[in-house]
């Protein structure tokens, strides 16, 4: 009785009962849910038989078609299709399955566009068979070139100038063939490079000192050089300590791996030959050209080879020749040539040089040096008298990708006075790096202003500083030596690294909107033209680091992304790095392929923050080699 009284008291009390309030709320909520469930069930339920009958009766009264009869008739007169009617679209390019297995170990030194077997199909006349002959689509390899068994990360510069691991370039032929010329020696697990050469038995450094006694190599007026028939590039290697940057080139020929030795030493070099097409450099690129017993027949074919040197030589630049036929009076017996043939060869060279309006500065001992004029005012006057080598007709002198060489003289830009330098005078090094290139200040590069050049230089300083936070190997001084920029534009990436112990091969794609390679050379940097739908003229494992700015956007719809990446993999050293900047959608496709090639990769934010569509792709090529020779790869 007491409990009942207590309950009544609680009900009439004004004090809120929390337990009853919760009960009321739960009951009300349950009622609403049930109500709405029943309403929904009624709304979506099929009609009842009574409703169908009523609808049929009403349709008959109104002379309307019987909906039920029509439905049953449709079912009976049609074949039911139970196959799937939803299909996923084809995956976009870049997301398809991609497989790049290792190539056979015999391809460890494969150079696609200078393949020895393919070259034999082409004429030997004018050395055409040693030029670039790239594989067609059906011949292209879809595998990853292996490093030779035992490959090691190359020695660091400057130690690498004098030594390289034998396992990286396992060829002893030159140690035998050039034994008496001090090119290279084999000692234990490495090669030694004493710095000797055919025409400099006292060493490349002493040889360069001899050149320095004849022309000024110290004031910074000579910064870029080209070495034709470079051997193991000792001349270029010893110029580096004098702040002179040389591009060394030689064909892939019987001197096995000479360019490969140069690259292992950390010296800029490319596979190349003077044959029938222009060298892949712009006009007026080099301050100095050099040939030390390079065996190029300078006087033959109407002097076409020397005419090509003239095209790439800067106004006022020097051509240095040592070896046959220079100083033939002292060497004709050792060269196993007659005096008459050697004298005739030198006379022919002198005649060709004169037809190019060059001036012979000096011949002393085994060295002869000619100088190109700073402009063509006097040269044009002599043409009216002698007419022995006409000027080339209107043709872009900077075009140099599969462009045929000519025997005509490439005209220099016009000047108003005989004291002016055609194309504009360059600052001495190191001021040359930051000075506005004459091609820009003169307006020759349409669309690029002086302010744009300066802004670009500052931009790349910031970008490279950011790169070093993403790639610790790039930040580690001395870890990298050979660098490649796949789309160099104005060379800002290379300029920002000028204080690091590296060199950068600046490539300007032939598909680029502007041909800026000439401006890059006017900064005192080096580079080459390249079509990235084809292989580069270099050996596997050339570069420690590869950089590319918008490369894959540039080559969209031109060639396959995976083919460009496989070429990058070929020329990148094991444990080398790649940094690409491009649109995020492009880089996502790149990453899919990179993962399949066993690169360790990631995509990082733009240096300005995560809201930029342009992102940074960072990757490291894993270390792997061919199996030991006695084992077969699986």
Strand arrangement within the widest β-sheet reads 6-5-4-7-8-10-9
Low-confidence stretches: 1-16, 48-64, 82-95
Strand content: 15-25%
Number of strands: 17
What class, by secondary structure content?
A: alpha/beta
Largest sheet: 7 strands, mixed
From the alpha carbons, calculate the radius of gyration and give it in angstroms.
37 Å
CATH fold annotation of one domain: Rossmann fold
On the 0 to 100 scale, the average pLDDT is: 88
For CATH, the homologous superfamily of one domain is named as Vaccinia Virus protein VP39
Please give a structural write-up.
The protein is built from 22 helices and 17 strands. It is of the alpha/beta class and 634 residues long. The strands form three sheets. Strands 6-5-4-7-8-10-9 form a seven-stranded mixed beta sheet, sandwiched between helices. The longest helix has 27 residues, at 18-44. The radius of gyration is 37 Å and the shape is globular.
């Amino acid at each position: 009785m007491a409990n009942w009284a207590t309950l009544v008291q609680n009900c009439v009390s004004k004090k809120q009962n929390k337990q009853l309030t919760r009960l009321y709320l739960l009951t009300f909520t349950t009622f609403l849910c049930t109500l709405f469930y029943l309403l929904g069930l009624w709304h979506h339920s099929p009609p009842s038989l009574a409703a169908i009958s009523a609808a049929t009766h009403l349709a008959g009264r109104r002379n309307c078609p019987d909906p039920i009869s029509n439905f049953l008739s449709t079912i009976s007169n049609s074949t039911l299709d139970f196959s799937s009617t939803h299909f996923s679209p084809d995956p976009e390019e870049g997301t398809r399955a991609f497989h790049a297995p290792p190539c056979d170990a015999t391809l460890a030194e494969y150079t696609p566009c200078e393949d020895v077997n393919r070259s034999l199909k082409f004429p030997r006349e004018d050395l055409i068979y040693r030029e670039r002959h790239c594989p067609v689509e059906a011949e292209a390899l879809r595998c990853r070139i292996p490093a030779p068994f035992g490959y090691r990360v190359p020695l660091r510069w400057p130690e690498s100038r004098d030594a390289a691991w034998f396992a990286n370039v396992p060829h002893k032929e030159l140690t035998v063939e050039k034994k008496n010329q001090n090119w290279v020696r084999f000692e234990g697990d490495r090669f030694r490079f004493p710095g000797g050469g055919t025409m400099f038995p006292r060493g490349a450094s002493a040889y360069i000192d001899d050149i320095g006694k004849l022309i000024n190599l110290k004031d910074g007026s000579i910064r870029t050089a080209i070495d034709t028939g470079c051997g193991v590039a000792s001349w270029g290697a010893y110029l580096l300590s004098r702040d002179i940057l040389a591009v060394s080139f030689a064909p892939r020929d019987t001197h096995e791996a000479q360019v490969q030795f140069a690259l292992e030493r950390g010296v800029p070099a490319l596979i190349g030959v003077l044959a029938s097409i222009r060298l892949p450099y712009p006009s007026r690129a080099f301050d100095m050209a050099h040939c030390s017993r390079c065996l190029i027949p300078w006087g033959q074919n109407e002097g076409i080879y020397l005419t090509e040197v003239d095209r790439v030589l800067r106004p006022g630049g020097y051509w240095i020749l040592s070896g046959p036929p220079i100083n033939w009076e002292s060497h004709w017996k050792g060269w196993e040539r007659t005096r008459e043939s050697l004298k005739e060869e030198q006379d022919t060279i002198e005649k060709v040089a004169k037809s190019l309006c060059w001036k012979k500065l000096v011949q002393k001992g085994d060295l002869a040096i000619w100088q190109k004029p700073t402009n063509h005012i006097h040269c044009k006057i002599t043409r009216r008298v002698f007419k022995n080598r006409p000027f080339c007709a209107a043709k872009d002198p900077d075009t140099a990708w599969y462009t045929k060489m000519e025997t005509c003289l490439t005209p220099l830009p016009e000047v108003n006075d005989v004291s002016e330098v055609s194309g504009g005078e360059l600052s001495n090094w190191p001021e040359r790096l930051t000075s506005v290139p004459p091609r820009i200040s003169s307006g020759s590069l349409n669309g690029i202003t002086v302010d744009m050049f300066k802004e670009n230089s500052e931009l790349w300083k910031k970008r490279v500083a950011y790169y070093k936070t993403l790639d610790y190997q790039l930040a580690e001084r001395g870890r990298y030596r050979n660098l490649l920029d796949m789309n160099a534009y104005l060379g800002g990436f290379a300029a920002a690294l000028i204080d690091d112990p590296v060199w950068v091969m600046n490539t300007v794609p032939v598909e680029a909107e502007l041909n800026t390679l000439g401006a890059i050379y006017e900064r005192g940097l080096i580079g080459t033209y390249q079509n990235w739908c084809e292989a580069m003229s270099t050996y596997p494992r050339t570069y420690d680091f590869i950089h590319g700015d918008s490369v894959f956007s540039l080559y969209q719809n031109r060639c396959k992304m995976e083919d460009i990446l496989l070429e990058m993999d070929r020329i990148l050293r094991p444990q080398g790095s790649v940094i690409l900047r491009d649109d995020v959608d492009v880089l996502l496709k790149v990453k899919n392929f990179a993962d399949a090639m066993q690169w360790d990769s990631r995509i990082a934010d733009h240096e300005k923050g995560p809201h930029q569509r342009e992102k940074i792709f960072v990757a490291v090529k894993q270390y792997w080699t061919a199996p030991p020779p006695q084992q077969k790869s699986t």
